[in-house]
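User: Signal recognition particle 54 kDa protein, Biomphalaria pfeifferi:
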Amino acid sequence: MVLADLGRKITSALKSLSNATIINEEVLNGMLKEICAALLEADVNIRLVKQLRENVRSVIDFDEMAGGLNKRRMIQSAVFKELVKLIDPGVKAWQPSKGRNNVIMFVGLQGSGKTTTCTKLAYYYQRKGWKTCLICADTFRAGAFDQLKQNATKARIPFYGSYTEIDPVVIAQEGVEKFKAENFEIIIVDTSGRHKQQDSLFEEMLQVEQAIKPDNIIFVMDATIGQACESQAKAFKDKVDVASVIITKLDGHAKGGGALSAVAATKSPVIFIGTGEHTDDFEPFKVQPFVSKLLGMGDIEGLIDKVNELKLDDNEELMKKLKHGQFTLRDMYEQFQNIMKMGPFSQIMGMIPGFSSDFMTKGSEQESMARLKKLMTIMDSMNDQELDSLEGEKLFSRCPGRATRVARGAGVSIREVNELLTQYKKFAQMVKKMGGIKGLFKGGDMNRNVNQGQITKLNQQMAKMMDPRVLQQMGGMQGLQSMMRQFQQGATGKFGNMFNFTDR
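Assistant: Predicted structure for Signal recognition particle 54 kDa protein:
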């Protein structure tokens, strides 16, 4: 998770409130001192940090506070609101319209990750069902077109560029006209950058802008320069009509807080953040969920959105099977595919309340994805009978030759095939138990529909199946039950108190 260190320090400062027996001026000052130190370390402007401190102090007046009020919650709520204010410019971000051409032009300095970010944005919209394409109008940097071509080919995104044409305006115009004629919905134009702000860079940007008349100009900002982001963003905004900002290289960089707060000061909304080199290391930026994740409070709304994107409700056949407690190897394969579609595990983990932002490191995340791919490769070597049988595991135990054949086909050991079958058996048993619980698959409030004793048993079964580290990170059985409850509330649209500390 981005700015993990900052999140840990602020969460630690807020926890000092829970540990204090009496909440008074001294406790409040100690907590604010820790929070301000953490923000300054993250390179947030000292003026903004001072403002945050004063605003929290002005809200909390111990003398005027009524006796029945929960002081802890009031202080936590005030800190949350001020952190939101710190990085929220209060400007609505531009949104593309479905079914028409949306031309997006990228600007920024060389080395900020502009070309990679173009691909990430195109890939993001492509996964959501938009018809996307890329145009390389960067003729200044040697190898720019090769890089875009390579990225686009890997992500299977149509692209346009030229090795012979040296005028970026001509390339941009031709590319936009070509893709408009082919009814592309998201047309992304990558422009040249320079090592520093130069008149030639701004002149070229203006000419390209006038030629293609973009619907949105995105300024790509390198987070590693911290507070200097503000002057850069303003310089670009003065020359062209920058409508939104994408901040790159936010993967754990100390100056990230400075970049976020500095850009907010320019009144340009940050729409995405880049958190790594891979195509899916890219997150939509919404202020409240971002601060919520930063403080380890999760982002249930984002998690529900991710699940809804998979359109699991459309899979009536699977829902019917689950109701009857049936689960095949093919069903497991499809669920693995869904997990892969949801994006990096660390992003998903960060959305679950109670998980620390650094629960899954890049290394362990890559290992998990590699393991998932290996399991899918094993299932690719199975035949239809094995994949669709309701007794998949028994089929293999009755005829050991099947496991030998699958292992040979997938290039793995027989032991690895048997491990997959053991995992499948656990899943199938779990689904059988879920199928036996009346009301679990009905719409509405699960607490009303389902016998609580059965839910407790189900939670215990889930706990047995989980990695002990994961369960411990969630706060044991109690944490698991709390997460299931929150997730169910989120699924039924009850987001009212999601960002409110009063229910915590």
